[in-house]
Design a protein that fits this description.
The chain is α+β, with helices and mostly antiparallel strands. It has two domains: 241 residues, outer membrane lipoprotein receptor (LolB), chain A (Clam), CATH 2.50.20.10; 206 residues, Ribonuclease Z/Hydroxyacylglutathione hydrolase-like (Metallo-beta-lactamase, Chain A, 4-Layer Sandwich). 25% of the residues lie in helices and 37% in strands. The protein is built from eleven helices and 27 strands. The strands form three sheets. It has a 14-stranded mixed beta sheet. Strands 15-16-17-18-19-20-21 form a seven-stranded mixed beta sheet, covered by helices on one side. Strand 25, helix 10 and strand 26 form a beta-alpha-beta unit. The longest helix is centred in the N-terminal third of the chain and has 20 residues. The structure holds zinc ion. The site of zinc ion (ZN) has 6 residues, from loops.
Length: 481
């Protein structure tokens, strides 16, 4: 008996080894079979070949996971309306999004159209040219959430496709294909074995983890099924859902790529390499690529402010000019995921992290460093050494977060803040957002007069006048409405 099992097992192993030698061929053959079924289900190759342009109007509900006013769930929900347009032949892509939530005010657009490509801010009424427009990079996110266009990719890039296997989704058997697009990691596409509709996709993106989509509610547009909604999951946690209100195929698209005439053209955004700016005696703003920290020299130590990406490199640049003073304190402005990254770096420096009491837990949970020391601030705390005075003040609540630590140097009237104000380029002031207005009101309430404003996401040191001009612009807009 035992021998018999052995023989069966042996032949089983043998067969797996033999097929393993042909695994590539088997996978490619099976993928072709599935692709053929899928193309048929999506209207056939003729229709899909002729599918050149698509316009989708949508309503999105974004869950502000780790980006809400409170440190934990339930997360704030932000509603956005917008549309996207793609034209493969002309290599044009446009998208725009307008916030419908009171908490946020924005209305932005991107136009990718060769040398007439722009980043548009409809609130500020400005258009800034895109120096190196890239059709496929810009359109990729739209293609990835539009199953019919992914099927078009399967037709064109079938040579990259492998069959990954079968999987169960909601109790139904699915064939899973792996597609490699022109850019980005491979995507796993889950097609229902009966309907051949795409119900799910997944890919692993370095810094985020597992990004997944669920598609549903298919409706045919000129014979091609289009999904009426999708949900986005980051590491299996729901992050947003989108309802497609209207889908049009092969419409005329010229209206989408034309700049509105009243837009003011502003200079293109410049590359922003890591650099150190001396703002005042012993006060530095160090950063690049959208994240910055402030460093203040005290008698025998340094106070660091801000917790965004790249703190370690920013500290290294500080040590070139302040080599002999350790960082004693690192102030984290608030609990949002992109503002607590510095916790780990400060702990490694042996510095004490200063944070709002309400944010202590989130910060502790985010670092693996057991030596992390946190001192919490309830309303404010003052640090003095020599003739330098540094105030850490909780100016919350604002539209952005319930607690927000700012760091203020009363002598120089310099303030560091995060997420409430910033200039994209010198002199390019946008109308104040609800968060900016809340920030300005909090400054007034706390009797803080500012000359210079340093921001966690801005390379440019703004002035108190810039803030006033943003408030005036918002007021003018409101009176025009
Ligand atoms: Zn934030």
């Amino acid at each position: 008996m035992r021998e018999k099992i052995f023989i069966i097992l042996g032949s089983f192993l043998l067969s797996t080894i033999v097929s393993a030698q042909n695994l590539t061929q088997q996978s490619v053959d099976k993928a072709r079979e599935v692709i053929d079924q899928v193309i048929e289900a999506y209207g056939g190759s003729e229709r899909l070949t002729k599918l050149n342009s698509v316009v989708v109007k949508f309503e999105t509900s974004n869950l502000a996971v780790n980006q809400s006013r409170k440190p934990g769930p339930p997360w704030d929900e932000n509603r956005v309306v917008g549309s996207s347009m793609i034209d493969f032949e002309k290599q044009q892509f446009t998208t725009n999004a307008k916030s419908m939530s009171e908490r946020q005010e924005f209305s932005n657009g991107t136009i990718i159209n060769g040398d007439k490509s722009y980043q548009v801010d409809y609130r500020a009424n400005t258009a800034s040219p895109i120096a190196e427009p890239n059709f496929i990079n810009s359109a990729g996110p739209f293609i990835r959430v539009t199953p019919a266009l992914l099927v078009k990719q399967l037709m064109q890039r079938g040579y990259t496709v492998h069959y990954l296997g079968q999987a169960d989704v909601d109790g139904r058997a699915h064939d899973v294909l792996s597609l490699v697009m022109e850019v980005g990691p491979a995507i796993s596409l889950y097609f229902d074995q009966k309907t051949h509709m795409l119900n799910k996709s997944e890919r692993v993106v370095g810094t985020f983890g597992l990004i997944g989509y669920r598609f549903g509610d298919y409706k045919k547009v000129d014979g091609i099924p289009f999904n009426q909604h999708f949900k986005l999951f980051i590491n299996e946690e729901n992050n947003m859902k989108r309802q497609n209100i209207h889908t049009q195929i092969n419409p005329t698209t010229t209206e989408y790529t034309q700049l509105k005439q009243n837009l003011v053209q502003v200079s293109a955004t410049q590359p922003d390499p890591l650099r150190r700016q001396k703002v005042s005696d012993g006060v530095y703003l160090i950063g690049g690529s959208g994240t910055y920290a402030m460093f203040i020299e005290m008698d025998d130590h340094v106070i660091a402010v801000g917790g965004t990406a790249g703190i370690t490199e920013r500290i290294a640049l500080l040590k070139e000019v302040v080599p002999n003073k350790p960082i004693k304190y690192g102030v984290l402005t608030h609990h949002h995921s992109d503002h607590i990254l510095g916790g780990q770096a400060y702990a490694e420096e042996g510095a004490v992290v200063i944070a709002a009491s309400a944010h202590e837990k989130v910060i502790r949970d985010s670092t693996e460093n057991k030596k992390l020391k946190i001192e919490t601030v309830n309303k404010n705390r003052t640090f003095k050494s020599g003739d330098r005075e540094v105030r850490v003040i909780d100016i919350g609540p604002t539209e952005h977060t319930e607690h927000l630590l700012v760091v203020y140097l009363p002598e120089e009237a310099i303030i560091f803040e995060a997420d409430h104000f910033g200039l994209r380029s010198a002199g390019n002031v946008s109308p104040a957002s609800p968060a900016t207005r809340a920030f300005a009101q909090s400054l007034q309430r706390n009797k803080i007069k500012v000359k210079l404003i340093l921001s966690a996401h801005s390379a440019i040191v703004a002035s108190g006048d810039d803030l006033q001009s943003a408030l005036d612009k918002a007021k003018n807009m409101a009176s025009k409405d």
